[in-house]
């Protein structure tokens, strides 16, 4: 299909699926836009495309700054905000010939698991249950996932702090990849929890995800947490070591983390998991059970650390430096108005306020030792757990430290587990009068995604189906997660490719 046809089809889908609320702002079908796609088509015909994404439409989660379209983070406080610059990832993709399809709906500032905490209203997935009830699109990058699932764009970027790319991918039947922390620039991406925030890619298949990742996987001197060229070459030479390089041709050692086999795991998730493992074994790979004992503490640690960083990050929305200043008196001595309280009271939604309160509490003098410091310790244990099971050592650890923790030949190459403990819930059970799910219950959906986030590891969710092959009505769609050692992003993508779209 020509790029022009592909783009026209995306725009048609944006129109016909507008009610899903996946894209908040879209690029209008301007003549200038048409020219750019036509130019890309011509380059492609001549055999000189700028890149694999030349002329393709990419949607960006609305917490990624774009110069030409507003960046709202789905928050009242950034209602009218237009960034004076493009985020590095936007610029990189534009330089590679891609076009911005639009800005995708999300949970406010990336806080949520179902894309229902948005000033624009919830994202709706095309998926329904047997009673025709709409199901959650997952969050917080639900708009990015639904835009891909309904072909409103070629691929999209989201952010993944604790699972926000992988969970929506699992719920919408798309592929969602969170690269190793620090590979992709965060410059121009509105921070939620800096030590965890990672820009991720969503696509309808692994190959489109890889095409986008290849463009954004570059050093950016403007992001101090982005890996330097020397660290990148250290990782490359580590992966080229004979013991690791042979994994491309030989059978892989697939790890099954025992602690992920929780009693709350829905039968459909368990079936997708066990059949994916059986399939990998049939393909000649070997299965090994491994133990990650700190996993059960990871969720609690994440929900202390992420809100703590969020409360600090969001302090700048004070109506002076950032954030909409509400109408009315803002004199701090006035009884009617206090600028800071009014700005934040009106600007933030309830989930963001909850996170700010949680974070301010755990960072307060009386609770710091009991909560924040303990959670940091758990984070370190989670990292140790992973290092103890992977064949490859953490390439950025100092050589001595890496060796001690490396499980060497005994270790596994990747871990395979479910992305989510259960299928997507109904939207009606999450919001409105019929809501039966508390915020705390929503946090539990992240149980399998936060450990990789705490350790900064690459992780991907790929869709697989199980059940009756003849009758798609009886098939269960589930996301299977592949987690690799730090820097082993290529292997994670490769294993995902083995599993993607399989009917097991
Ligand atoms: N659901 C998690 C949270 O609300 C993850 C969010 C994310 O990855 N941005 O913190």
TrEMBL record:
It is found in: Mitochondrion. GO terms for cellular component: glutamyl-tRNA(Gln) amidotransferase complex; mitochondrion. GO terms for biological process: glutaminyl-tRNAGln biosynthesis via transamidation; mitochondrial translation. The keyword Protein biosynthesis applies. It is an enzyme of class 6 (ligase). Pfam families: Amidase (PF01425). Residues 16-493 form the Amidase domain. Belongs to the amidase family. GatA subfamily. Subunit of the heterotrimeric GatCAB amidotransferase (AdT) complex, composed of A, B and C subunits. This is Glutamyl-tRNA(Gln) amidotransferase subunit A, mitochondrial. It comes from Aspergillus ibericus CBS 121593.
